Amino acid sequence: MNAKHKTVFIAFSSQKGGVGKSTFTTLVASTMHYRLGYNVAVFDADFPQHSLMKMKSRDLAMVMENESLKKLAYKQFTTINKKAYPIMQARADSVLETAHEFLSSSSIPIDVVFFDLPGTVNTPGILNALAGMHHIFTPITADRVVMESTLIFTQLLQDVIMKKGETSIETINLFWNQVDGRESTPLYAIYNQLIDQLGLSLMQSQIKNSTRFRKESEVNSKAVFRSTVMPPDERLMKASQLDQFINEFLKIIEL
């Protein structure tokens, strides 16, 4: 691999489960690799779930069982002329070394490596792994427990790890996920003000919540949203405002 090629390390990370870390890793990796022309790789270090490894197996099986998706996948891979991005299992305490070994042996230059990391600071090696990221993106929801956990975690990264200087972190970015238009607007305003007072970065993009976006669970579906082998359906991207998120995401990482 060309040693001068810069590979960006990115993690969707949070100390709270169920806020969308693995989902966003998949959505953004698939959009970049299959639709935008970037080469990406993913390391699943979220022991013991390793949900991305399992997701890829389910996605491949579903494509083979669904004629509509099989046709879409065939058209996709013959058009872009490259394979599905690799998802590799690793341990949090050695994932950085494993990633660098992979990059040094890769026959193609990798633009972005995504890391799906455990959601607890008690995991051995997790803080060192986070310190090795270039950019961290943290999904948040308008829930008091989620917010308290996330803000403490983000301040730890920003005020302890980043200020020590022994880190690759360039940005830490919070963003609203599962936004329900029926929820009280003042609630978000209060949280936004708190985030600003703490000196944390909040993305302008907000991801809308809808059961329509869970298309990977529908066996007879003609479109997918979350998939490791295909990009999100463009109509669903627009409806969820994921398209706006991707644009802002690309500006932040400056590829």
From TrEMBL:
One of its GO terms (molecular function) is ATP binding. InterPro entries: CobQ/CobB/MinD/ParA_Nub-bd_dom (IPR002586), DNA_Partitioning_ATPase (IPR050678), P-loop_NTPase (IPR027417). PANTHER family: P-LOOP CONTAINING NUCLEOSIDE TRIPHOSPHATE HYDROLASE (PTHR13696), PARA FAMILY PROTEIN CT_582 (PTHR13696:SF52). This is Conjugal transfer protein TraA. Residues 10-216 form the CobQ/CobB/MinD/ParA nucleotide binding domain. Pfam families: CbiA. Gene3D superfamilies: P-loop containing nucleotide triphosphate hydrolases.
